[in-house]
Specification:
By secondary structure, the chain is an alpha+beta fold. The protein has helices at residues 5-25, 30-107, and strands at residues 111-122, 127-131, 144-147, 150-158, 163-167, 174-179, 185-190, 196-202, 212-215, 227-235, 242-248, 258-264. The protein has two helices and twelve strands; from the N terminus they run H-H-E-E-E-E-E-E-E-E-E-E-E-E. It is elongated, with a radius of gyration of 46 Å.
Amino acid sequence: MNLSRTNRRILIVVAVGGLLVMLGTLGKLGPVRWLYDHTLVPIGQGFNGLGSNTSEALANVGGVRNLARENVRLERENAELRKKIAADAETRRDNELLRKQLGLEVAGTYREVAAEVVAFQPDSYRQFVTINKGKKAGIANGMAVVSEGVLIGTIADAQASTSRIILVTDPEFKLTAKDQETGATGIIRGQLGSGLVLDKIGQTDEVKPGDTVTTSGLGGIVPPGLLIGKVESVNTRANVVFQVAQVETSLKVSRLRFAYVVLGL
């Protein structure tokens, strides 16, 4: 009987299977099993581990790339936030300056010209700042200038479109002033690096630490009632003709950005 090729293959497979079963029953498959366990199994495990390691490596590379992109994005966001915070702080400061000035305008009835400080010219002795408004805006020499509600100086040199301000801290600055609480008058003058001095106070006049010093309105075009500062201490020695008071000003020259020239009532 002629068997087809397919049937022969089936018979061979069955015969080999039966032989392996018989050899396994008789305990004759030990060498074959040892060869399988010590060669084919480790090789298979090696390929499996290699595949796992490769997958992990590829995943790690992808993760590093994602982290790099995320870091770039976060750095950009941080830069934008830093710029926004700086801009917000600057805006808040400007608004605070304007609010203080608005409070001064509400309290008084003075006409003012707002200007921006465009130059600061300090040296070892004199102190001036320049603003971007001048005669065209009605500004004239001798007019008072305030910032943040405090007198900072007077106009020393008005030009067409700019003006130079002599600051109260300049040793050459002089202006009549008074103690707002007691009415005692004197001459306020600059003292470079150590605040202001209220000089020429009569011996019988009363001036106390903590009193408010304002402009007196005497002897010029500066109106009365502009805040200058607070009395820190008073020299009341009996052997001098006049009393002298140290006056503290809140003026911070390095922070000046806006100035308001008082034109008058």
